[in-house]
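User: what does the whole thing look like in 3D?
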Amino acid sequence: MPGYDTTAPQEQGQEPAPVKILVAGGFGVGKTTLVETISEIEPLRTEERLTSAGIGVDDLDGIESKTVTTVAMDFGRLTLTDAGVVLYLFGTPGQERFWFMWDDLLNGALGAIVLVDTRRLDRSFPAVDFFESRGLPFVVGANCFHGEQPYTAEEIGAALHLRDPNTPVLMLDARSRTDVRGSLLALLDLLIAKAQAPAAVSG
Ligand SMILES: Nc1nc2c(ncn2[C@@H]2O[C@H](COP(=O)(O)OP(=O)(O)O)[C@@H](O)[C@H]2O)c(=O)[nH]1
Ligand SMILES: [Mg+2]
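Assistant: Here's the predicted 3D structure for the full assembly of 203 residues, as structure tokens:
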């Protein structure tokens, strides 16, 4: 398939373990941007131009210059050689009309990153609720849209009513490779910590 990177060295003959990660959050929080920023393959995306057909369905209130929307999902890949894993990133569709896909997307996923825009935090509540109810570990990425974030991680966590107060809340710019990589590594750390923790409390 054109665009696929076949040059990644597999030293020691050790195949990196595939890890499925979901990238979720409300409409316009930066999911497509995040997958594009970090993917080592040309990200697959299914986008359509927002048209009058989306009025009332896609709530554009306060979202500047957004003219395309992800219809189904974004897909990207990132090999983390040191960690011995290859991440498969699935950007979930933000709009409520695609909720029926979420259970399928959850299939085989080990963790998620929930992006939030603190100017419109409510748009990411459904993603938080969904992962908490399904028990999927996640980190929160607070997208700093104007280069700054007026709230602290603690304030954002409290405003999101995170069930697990130890859920990492990270400040990031979805356009920054360093930031996105850092948030994915934080998620991996969380997954490893959960895997090593003695039998987790179940609700
Ligand atoms: N300033 C800034 N703009 C961003 C950031 N992330 C995304 N954007 C912009 O916000 C808009 C929505 O992002 P998009 O990735 O399409 O959101 P999605 O609906 O969650 O996929 C786009 O115009 C992006 O260029 C960010 O971290 N900082
Ligand atoms: Mg998108």
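In plain terms: The two ends are 44 Å apart (CA to CA). Helices lie at 31-38, 102-106, 125-134, 153-159, 177-196.
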